[in-house]
Amino acid sequence: MARDYIARDPKTGRPIYQKRVSKQVDIRSMLPDSGTWQRIPLQDIIPLASGNITMVEIPRSQGGGLARRIDGILALNRVLPSQINSAHEALCNALDDDDADIRITALKSLPSFAIKKHENLFLYLSDRLLEDDNDVRREARLALRKSAPVFPSGCEEILRRELRDTRKQHRDDAFTTLQETAANWVETGCLHLDELIREEDVDLRRRGAKILRTITAKGGATGWDLISWSLQDEDPIVRRSASAFLSKLANSEPKIATILVEAAMLDEDNGVRKNIIRTLKTLDMQNPRVAQLIQDGARDKDPVLRKACIDQLSIILSGDRLREVAAELLRQETRKDLRKRLERLALDVDWEGTEEEKNRSLAPLEKVEEEEISEPNATLSPHSGVDKPKSESHKQELGRRAARNEDERDF
């Protein structure tokens, strides 16, 4: 009987138990392409794959034709459970055959047969990746890509070596394999990324940073550490890639994202700053820490960041506090467009506005139409006949009126 494969934690060696795999691997994608091998009678598969017989004639009732050794090797995944050991031996012999075409065919059969019995198969796969024959190595890389997401522990050392291979095609395929593996086994993805971001080779760090997206949501504390370390990398492209995933992290872990944004706001790279600005807009504006971040950003030396934060002031502040902060920022702002924006925020319409602005401030709120009331987000105040404000400016107007009424009561 074939032993079940047990995925193990890369660090502790203990079995990994997951309640739900984030992405189920389609086993059918591990099978060889359809062909004559699907019609070979079961009793003829092993003798044909072993080379004991050179050819098998397929009955006409099964479609007819002739099957040769390469077809028998591809059909090894079809054998009965009682024949698995013999089929495994035939596959190992084919993987080590002198004929390159036989080795290539055996590599095509390896991923699907490994589900039945994987013992020693990955050792042969490792050897085939070191061959001089380009066609054999190409098929071996494809076999690794199919096998690693299902057998992360068995392919761990092979993948580690391939990621650092100096040949471009080997490295490209290895990182594609790592991304697909990390999508199914976050622990394995974190292990490799933890090693890659410490490498001196900047290309490895850059490629590794791009895969952080795969483990951002489910990497837990380890994933957060990987993003934090990448945000401190000396290479701006690495920091840029890491900061690009903060907005996604903000959806699942807003508190952690806020901490990372706070640490990265002083970055000198424009690409990182753009990602920070985009993330700021997704954070909870009611959080005092986020509100302070926006106020600090409104004083930053970068005009783009200042503009983005000034635009958010009316969301986190209102009334006298908004006018006070805007007036303070106005004293040190030099750009005309930002000064104009701050002047509007610092203006008290009830006292300093034009006649039209004062009338608009005193005018009744706009009534929401019936079809808008029927929408899921439309609600009415239970105590007043006034509809809920429809726009951000409408909310600001409510805030100013509430502040004015409060002042009148104090007076």
Task: Lay out the secondary structure.
Elements: H1 42-50, E1 56-57, E2 66-67, H2 69-74, H3 84-95, H4 100-114, H5 121-128, H6 134-147, H7 156-163, H8 168-184, H9 186-196, H10 202-210, H11 212-216, H12 220-231, H13 236-243, H14 246-252, H15 254-264, H16 270-280, H17 288-297, H18 303-316, H19 319-330, H20 336-346, H21 349-352, H22 355-362, H23 370-373, H24 392-410
Antiparallel strand pairs: 1-2
Task: Walk me through what this model shows.
The chain has 411 residues and is mostly helical. The protein has a domain at 1-150. The protein is built from 24 helices and two strands. The protein has a two-stranded antiparallel ribbon with strand order 1-2. It is elongated, with a radius of gyration of 32 Å.
Key attributes of the depicted protein:
single chain, 411 residues, mainly alpha, two-stranded antiparallel sheet, 24 helices, disordered C terminus
